Amino acid sequence: MRFRHPDGSTVHLAYCTNVHPAETLDGVLAQLRDHCEPVRRRLGRDRLGIGLWLAKDAAHALATDPSALRGLRTELDRRGLEVVTLNGFPYEGFGAEEVKYRVYKPDWADPERLEHTTSLARVLAGLLPDDVSEGSVSTLPLAWRTAWDETRADKARAALATLGERLDALQELTGRSIRIGLEPEPGCVVETTRDAITPLTAIGHDRIGVCVDTCHLATSFEDPDEALDALEAAGIRIVKSQLSAALHAEHPSRPQVRDALAAFAEPRFLHQARTTTATGGLRGTDDLDEALAAGGPLPDTAPWRAHFHVPLHADPAAPLTSTLPVLKSALSRLVGGARPLTRHLEVETYTWQALPAQLRPRGRAQLTDGIAAELMLARDLLTDLGLKELP
Q1: Considering only CA atoms, which of 224, 243, 256, 244 is closest in space to residue 320?
Q2: Would residue 48 count as lying in a domain?
Q3: Rounded distance between C-alpha atoms, residue 180 and residue 287, angstroms
Q4: C-alpha torsion angle, residues 193, 196, 201, 204 (rounded to 10)
Q5: In the chain, helix, strand, coil percent, each to 5?
Q6: Do the beta carbons of residue 99 and residue 268 sit within 8 Å?
Q7: C-alpha 364 chain-centroid distance
Q8: Residues contacting 174, CB < 8 A, separation 6+
Q9: Is 265 a domain residue?
Q10: 97 in a domain, yes or no?
């Protein structure tokens, strides 16, 4: 979906296909047929943006076979779909029964992360619509925090600097500008937007910036205005933003609140939990079940938030809520000003099938309805900010 910003530029809105992951190119083509095109039709649009997630095998096939890349581009056009952004965070296995810590491998100290991201950039340059010259790829925030030392940090900095050089060369070759955004996430080396400033300043390349995920922002209790102001003051480019909402528990000491949270503690993904301290710091656990354990490490005198991407249009039942107000505040700052701070927005609710059983979609049609409803909410938020929806 495209929108005209009051400054005359185009802002793109997509939804991320990691909600129905596929590991192979054939699987990606099936996604387009079974999910993405039906969402477009449900919205009654001639064109719909999607943020593709390409696993290792699919990315490699497209990067090494020009005919396969042309075939995917043709299929996108045929189904009324367009791609200006890729999700390059998960490497493979995102549809596994247990993902947890595996999603952070390989990290940016591993040469394979550089090669995979380079492949994604080359693929995206070939998928961009003819009238679009800029693309974005989100990636993991260096690494999970454990086993991270200065040696690995040096390797990551060197890899990202090399990536910047490759992206420069790619633009010279294709005329397409591809940028990469580190995506701050709780528990990672770059946990908050502020954590991103020092390593990105050290790299000092305009093509390497930040992907602001509004669920992660909220989980870490970051104030959107302060976070985005700090990035702008440091000269860090906001490459893209993922529009998502976290779980919020206002009174975690109450048994009914803890019971409600326990329904979201599931075995597939990590759901990092955070709360604030009296001194303004953060306390956290790597997963929600750790926070809920008897005698767990989180104080329960202040609200808790959990990294669980809940559907944007549907708050969880009381006594829980979502952090949709944080998303709205961030979006106002991102695109509601005199100029957009980013032109790539991506709804990323990948947890539909990890929701408590009574909330999960039953079949493809209900999932299509849910994704379409999220996009309609995002559309309404953008038009309320003065952007004009384009055909």
Answers
A1: 256
A2: yes
A3: 28
A4: -100
A5: 45, 20, 35
A6: yes
A7: 22
A8: 125, 126
A9: no
A10: yes
pLDDT in tens, 204-215: 999 999 999 999
User: Tell me, what's the pLDDT at 34?
Assistant: 98
Report the distance separating Cα 321 and Cα 318, nearest Å.
7
Where does the pLDDT of residue 280 fall: very low under 50, low under 70, confident under 90, or very high at 90 and above?
A: confident
Q: Is residue 273 part of a domain?
A: no
Residue 264 tokens, joined: 């979201």
Q: Determine phi and psi for 110, rounding to 5 degrees.
A: -95, 125
* Domains identified in the chain, total number: 1
Which residue bears the tokens 């591809």?
178
Strands 10-16 and 344-347: parallel
pLDDT in tens, 125-141: 999 999 999 999 999 99
Segment 99-128, tens digit of pLDDT: 999 999 999 999 999 999 999 999 999 999
Reported residue count of the chain is 391
Look up the CATH number of the domain holding residue 120.
3.20.20.150
Omega before 319 within 30 of 0, i.e. cis? yes
Q: What is the pLDDT of residue 81?
A: 98
Q: How far apart are CA 117 and CA 21, in angstroms?
A: 18
- Residue 250 burial (CB count, 10 A): 12
Judged against a pLDDT cut of 90, whether residue 21 lies above it is answered with no
Residues 133-183 pLDDT 10s: 999 999 999 999 999 999 999 999 999 999 999 999 999 999 999 999 999
Q: What percent of the chain shows pLDDT beyond 90?
A: 98
Write the DSSP assignment of 127-193 as a string of letters.
HS-TT--EEEEEE--S-BSTT--HHHHHHHHHHHHHHHHHHHHHHHHHS-EEEEEE---TTBSS-SH
Q: How far is CA 289 from CA 94, 101, 211, 292, in A?
A: 21, 15, 28, 5
Please give the pLDDT value at position 56. Answer: 97
Check: CB of residue 166 under 8 Å from CB of residue 118. Answer: yes
What's the domain range around 26? 2-245+309-389
* pLDDT surpasses 90 at 7: yes
